[in-house]
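Let us practice reading a record.
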Amino acid sequence: MPLKTRRSPPEKKRLSRAKDRRNDYGENDKAARKAIPLRKRQANRMARRAGRVVAGDEDDQAAARLKRALKRRWRKVPDAALGAHIAHQAAGRVARQGGKALRRTRMARWAAEQDDT
């Protein structure tokens, strides 16, 4: 068995940021446990119902409806890489920087306009 190569902490961090994933969908990260099976059930129900309707109809429109229903399948979307997620958070933090001072100047301007009227 070959020996494992020792990695330095910065190299471990770089590899972790490339390999680890974070949920950037906007929901709680624990919610996917219940949401994924729910969405799969809903998609399968929709396909079964469309198939049941088509079984009663023998025209070409019914077959087209079934094809459309099967095409609208729900698909899982992979989570974002940890490095990309951290970069997105940092960009948002920079964009929000100085927001309190900006709000104060806007509020002062609004108050001055209210005093003029």
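A brief commentary: Residues 32-56 form the longest helix (25 residues).
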